[in-house]
Amino acid sequence: MYEPLKTSEKLYVQFMVSLRCKMKVEEELNNLGVSFYKVDLGVIEIHEKLKESKRLLLKENLLKSGLVLMDDKRSILIEQIKTTIIELIHNSEELPKINFSDYLAEKLEHDYTYLSNIFSETKGITIQQYMIAHKIEKVKELLLYNELSLSEIAYKMHYSSTAHLSTQFKKITGLTLTYYKQLKLRRSMNLEDL
User: Fold this and answer.
1) Which of 68, 121, 177, 182 has the most crowded Cβ, counting Cβ within 10 A?
2) Is the pLDDT of residue 130 over 50?
């Protein structure tokens, strides 16, 4: 584990959602000669406070790749909420055992009601709706791989039952789980006919 110096700084980047984005950020930091501790989804930890001229260059270079270096504290907090949800649902093997609202409040060191209000005001949806949308995307991915049964997927994604998962999936996508799986199979069969 590294020990950040007192002069270290955290920078926040919007739209940083993949390994490729992280690699691009690292490349830009190296090109500018900026020494960093680590680059995670949405967050860069650098060794010392960035000079304004380098900050502007970094901002311009990242923007060319569709990444936004953020300055506004409210936007940064919204991005931290989104990144936490994305990491939790898409990049971790196991969802936390504690209530998600407690997990988010503890991780971001803010009261959940405050986080929830800011998120809703800014994004026009609740944190819960955002999380459900990502859970459904993860379910689609798991269905695509066809390695887990529906009950295993429901358990992995912390649904109380397969029926609960099915109801939420249909509400969000308009399709049943079975029909979605059949569409996937039909698409792969059509590709084999080419």
Assistant:
1) 177
2) yes
Tokens (6 digits) for 73:
């504290």
Top-tier CATH class for 75-187: mainly alpha
Question: CA 158, CA 164: separation in Å to the nearest integer?
Answer: 10
Same fold, 9-71 and 75-187: no
Residue 157 token pair: 């994604």
Closest CA to 43 of 89, 91, 19, 76: 76
- Average per-residue pLDDT in the chain? 85
Q: By the 8 A CB rule, do 84 and 130 touch?
A: no
Per domain, the residue ranges of the chain are 9-71, 75-187
Please determine, for residue 120, whether its predicted confidence score (pLDDT) is greater than 60: yes
- Give the whole-number percent of the chain exceeding pLDDT 90: 38
Question: Cα–chain-centroid distance for residue 133?
Answer: 12
Tokens, residue 94 = 């196991």
Helical axes 127-145 vs 177-192, angle rounded to 10° = 40
**pLDDT over threshold 80, residue 2:** no
Token pair for 173: 């996508």
| pLDDT tens track for 21-37 | 889 999 999 999 999 98
Distance CA 135, CA 126 (A): 14
CATH architecture of 9-71: 2-Layer Sandwich (3.30)
